[in-house]
Structures are given as C-alpha cells and as structure tokens.
Amino acid sequence: MTQSITILGSTGSVGKSTLAVLDLHRDLFKIEALTANTDVASLFEQCCQYKPRVAVMADDAAAEQLAVQLKDAGQTDVEVRAGHAALIDVAGSPNSSSVMAAIVGAAGLLPTLEAVKAGKRVLIANKEPLVMTGSLFMREAEASKALVLPIDSEHNAIFQSLPDDQNKAGVARLHLTASGGPFRGRSWDSLSEITPEQACAHPNWSMGQKISVDSATMMNKGLELIEASALFAMPAQKVDIVVHPQSIIHSLVEYLDGSFLAQLGAPDMRIPIAHALSWPQRIASGAQTLSLFDVARLDFQAPDMANLPCLRLARSAAEQQGAAPAVLNAANEVAVAAFLERRIPFTRIPRVIETALEQLASLDFSSVDEVLKIDNEARQVAVSALD
Ligand SMILES: NC(=O)c1ccc[n+]([C@@H]2O[C@H](COP(=O)([O-])OP(=O)(O)OC[C@H]3O[C@@H](n4cnc5c(N)ncnc54)[C@H](OP(=O)(O)O)[C@@H]3O)[C@@H](O)[C@H]2O)c1
Fold it and tell me: I need a surface site. Which of 93, 132, 259, 279 has the fewest CB within 10 A?
C-alpha cells in the first residue's frame, strides 16, 4: 500500500536524505507536503521534482517568493502555504499517514506534536521536542496510538536491538555510542579559538550546522541521552555514553543475562531513515554496504567528562528532570546560534547554558503551554548571559 508522507524540514540534511531514499521507492510513497523555513531555492527545486500537494514555508516573505516562482514555472498544482500555523496544520492533516519530523530545534515542537496527536506514523529526527517535553510527548503518542519511530541513528539502533514488542523487562542498560566529534582528545581549555567552520567539520557525519556544533561540544550526545530516556522510558542513570570513534556501532542494548545486542552500519542517515520508512519491512537505503574487512577494528573509550562541560550539564539535567531539559535545550539553541554568528567563543556555550539552568532548572510543567513559557524564559536568560 502506498504511504502518503509529509516531510517537515525537507530542505535540511535529514530532509534531503529522506528524499534520496524515497527516490528509490517512488511506487511505495506519495509526497503530500514539503516544508522549509526560508530556503526558497531548495523548496522550489523540490516542488518541481516531487510535485507535493502542499508546500509550506514558515517565513511569510519566503512563501510569497515561492508562490511567484512556482507560478512562473507553470507549477500551479502545488498549493503554497505560509507560517507556523500552516506547518502545524499540514503535520496533523488526514491527507498523510506518515510525517518525517526533521525541522531543527524547538521550532519543530508544535508541528511534531500535532502529527503525534493525529495518531500518525511519526519518524522523529527532530530530537528537541522530545528533550523539551519528555514523558508528556510519549503520553500523547500512547493516547493517540501514534507510532513513533526514531531516526537519530543511536535511537534507531536501540529500537532495532530491543525485542520486537519493545518489551524492556529484560533490559539492564542502554549504551549510546558517540564519535567524540571533531575535537575528541583535546582539552576544553584549548578550544577557545575554534571557529564555526572548524566546529561544523564533523569527521564521520554530514549534518546541519546546529547539530554539527552540538556534536563538537558533545551536547548532541547529552540531548540524545535525554531523548533516549524519554523514548524508551529508561531512567537517565541507566543510559551510558561510550565513545566509539569509527561510528560503526550505532548503539547497544545490554540485557540482564549479560547479552549485548547492537546495530552496525556505515555512518549514513539513509540507513535509519529507510528502516523507519519501511518498518517492519526492510527496503534498500542507497547507502554503501559496510565492509567489515575495511573497518577491521572497533575502539571504545569512556567519555572524558572533565573536558566535556556540555555533556556534564546535560546529564545533570537528564537526572534532575522537570523543566531542566527544556531550559538546557533553549539556552543551548541561543548559545549555538550566537557562536555560529561569531558573537561568542566556542568555550562560552556551556557558561550560557549553566546560567540559565542556575536560574530556571527547578521549575516544572504539566502542559505544552507551560513548556513553551519556560522555553521563552530560558531564551531570555540565555540572551542576557551572552554579554
Ligand atoms: N543531520 C543529521 O544527520 C541528523 C542526525 C540525527 C538527528 N538529526 C536531527 O534532525 C533535526 C534536523 O537536523 P538537520 O541536520 O537536518 O538540520 P538542517 O540541515 O539545519 O535542516 C533544518 C530544516 O528545518 C527547517 N527549519 C529551520 N528552522 C525552522 C523554523 N523556525 N520553522 C520551520 N522550519 C525550520 C529548515 O528550513 P530552511 O532550509 O529553509 O532553513 C530545514 O528544512 C535536528 O533536530 C537534528 O538534531 C539530524
């Protein structure tokens, strides 16, 4: 049966990888909607190539430009919509059965949640909504019977290594692997002159700018720890981080009897994307097959926590729960954006986050509106901590 799919964030790294997998299986998937923020050129090209029923640009002026360009190109079958409300609307629309959540950051929270509330198959790359709302997000999925399938390679690996019924009864611990990013082995104090270009040059993965900086600070692994804890209902204390520079083992599940089950593959996002698109079947992803003889060896190290202040802050927020993960996430988004704009040095990122946590981590929430209020407050504190 053909799956009708909406891709939130189709112009980003995960969005493009998703389209690359869909290219191999045009008979299995129909594209309902593609969305972006401001990248008119990319969304225009995608509309011409994939002819979605709807194209949404979060930015109003960008949507106007897209509409003009599509009209001039004779692509009048694509309905162009503008703004955040339109994003939420297409995410929950009954015209699609599946939604790929690949917007970056907290901007994806309400659209992703809308897809969850509509009981869809939700492929979740956008980890920030899960970090912000944790168990509340998963309760919504349970209530609507949405199928939440992880796209983050680590969480996808854990999903694949758990029993078919996802029963956690025999599970002792989860082990998230981390490449260690571009600055593995360096002391934190030696990183004060790091530029955005250096931080975004990841040794194994090609990704968007924000997640690349998060990987360089190892905040990404901290966000993944919080994400894993929410997705798999596992206390943060039972989720370990292991540095594995080759990025071949994507994560492991440790069972009570001493067995470890892991998922291995080339570091290519098309693999978890193809897995989640076709689950419980398997389809080709287009990724290169792993040659075990070329890999030859796999190394593992404990993370050097003394030199990873962002990972320390994230672990502490994960263990504290309440609003701490949402505060951490919001302050991190502000600090990373400021670093990418060259307004603060790389090494100031954790200081900004720490200031927000000191002021707001003890808050709690019981609704999405309250999370959004906390997110907003944390951003304000973080902005004042930039100077
Ligand atoms: N890249 C990876 O390999 C990878 C792996 C695992 C998980 N993830 C997660 O997947 C998510 C996406 O990552 P990415 O690397 O694909 O990011 P990216 O390349 O920066 O793409 C982000 C996408 O979101 C859109 N967007 C940005 N701000 C928006 C806003 N305010 N409203 C609506 N749309 C907005 C962008 O549109 P424009 O193009 O118009 O700006 C783009 O389509 C992140 O949460 C990341 O942590 C990524």
Answer: 259
Evaluate whether residue 313 is within a structural domain. no
Residue with tokens 């960008």: 62
Q: Are residues 146 and 163 in the same domain?
A: no
**Contacts of residue 307, Cβ cutoff 8 Å, sequence gap at least 6:** 186, 187, 188
17 shares a domain with 128:
yes
pLDDT in tens, 160-187: 999 988 888 899 999 999 999 999 999 9
List pocket residues of ligand 1, CB cut-off 6 Å.
Answer: 9-15, 36-39, 58, 87, 102-104, 107, 125-128, 152, 205, 207-211, 269
**Which tokens in the block code for residue 219?**
């905040």
Report the predicted TM-score, pTM, of the whole model to 2 decimal places. Answer: 0.97
Measured in Å, residue 291 CA sits from the centre of ligand 1 at 30
The Cα–Cα gap between 304 and 74 comes to 56
Distance 39 CA to ligand 1 centre (A): 12
* CATH number of the domain that residue 147 is part of: 3.40.50.720
